[in-house]
Amino acid sequence: MGWFIEEYGIAQISYNLTNISITSMHEAFYETCLAATKRGLRVTGSELVGLVPLQAMLDAADFYLKKQQRSLGISEKEKINIAVKSLGLDDLKPFHPQERIIEYVMNSDRSKKLIDLTVSDFAEETASESMAPYGGSIAAYVGALGVSLGTMVANLSANKPYWDDQWEYFSDWAQKGQKYKDDLLFLVDEDTNAFHQIIHGFRMPKSNAEEIELRTNAIETATKYATEIPFKVMETAFNSIEVMIEMMKKGLQNSLSDGGVGVLCAKAAVTGAYFNVRINAKEIKDREFATDILSKAANIYQHTLSLELEMMKIINDKIA
Asked: Is the peptide bond before 161 cis (omega within 30 degrees of 0)?
């Protein structure tokens, strides 16, 4: 339905979207704009009543980014801002994502994560006597910084003047980079969580045979998980190097050194996580499991060294 609002001096159309997988928020808004234009009118903005799923906002951002031929491989925060501005959700009053997006509201009471700290606070927390973060979390974070550099080059390349015919190619690579970055950021806190599970196991009671068995099994399970997490860091950081190598070959050449630094960060992440895999695997009683993961980890480490050499060759060949 539609009506004229005297307070704002504008007409408003009201929609109830009962299934946004059929008619999305941005499609309804866009079609309204087209219909208004045919009548010589302009849609100035929109108003959201209630809460909205995060994916609906991200989909809206992607829709408008594609129309602008801009890279989709940007951060969630940037996408939310683009969705708000493109849909005019802040036209009548400020739009606060933390209060209007369902997932953000649901997570508002959760304990603060390491990755929510400022850069300086993260460094201070690391330098303190607290039980976290340790080397595994730092390795994951360094890996996230490395692929962030590769993603930056992809985004810069996607928006480079006169490269309009390549924006989708670079956008795809930027999206890959964002996925690697998000996975590594998750592993920053998950490495700490894995360590806490081991501590919990050791604190379990051991006053009788049943308790001792439960405690032993809990420690073994936690130690395996604490080995799997740094292995996942290794795997993700290694795979992320493809973004930097590709951008060094085909992206903005003025950002060649950024790609190189990204590879070095990824190598540091792989190497640091490899240390953790090895030291944790020593404590695992299931030697078949330990031998298997150690073999896979060694293979990733060796391939990472090969990619570092490839990066150095690209740098040396292109920088006179």
From this structure: no
Rounded to a whole number of angstroms, the CA Rg of the chain reads: 25
pLDDT at 110 over 70: no
pLDDT tens digit sequence for 186-242: 999 999 999 999 999 999 999 999 999 999 999 999 999 999 999 999 999 999 999
Query: 246 and 266 in contact (C-beta within 8 Å)?
Result: no
Confirm if 248 and 256 have CB atoms less than 8 A apart. Answer: yes
Cα separation, 77 vs 85, whole angstroms: 13
Same domain, 61 and 139: no
By three-state DSSP, how is residue 13 classified?
strand
Listed in sequence order, the residues at least 6 apart from 139 whose beta carbon sits closer than 8 Å to its beta carbon are: 191, 230, 233, 237, 268, 269, 270, 271, 272, 273, 276
Pair 277, 292: CB distance under 8 Å: no
Neighbours of 110 (CB within 10 A): 8
195 and 56 together in one domain:
no
Burial class (CB in 10 A: 0-12, 13-18, 19+), 55: middle
Same domain, 231 and 149: yes
Are residues 89 and 206 located together in one domain of the fold? no
- Under a CB-based contact definition with an 8 Å cutoff, are residues 297 and 234 in contact? yes
Closest CA to 12 of 45, 37, 39, 40: 45
| Angstrom distance (rounded) from CA 228 to CA 209 | 29
Instruction: Give strand pairing partners of 3.
Output: 12
pLDDT tens digits for range 133-149:
889 999 999 999 999 99
Q: What is the pLDDT of residue 251?
A: 95
What CATH number does the domain containing 18 carry? 3.30.70.670
pLDDT digits (tens, 9 = 90+) for 280-294: 999 999 999 999 999
Domain span holding position 29: 2-106
Which of 49, 45, 57 lies closest to 92 in space, CA to CA?
A: 45
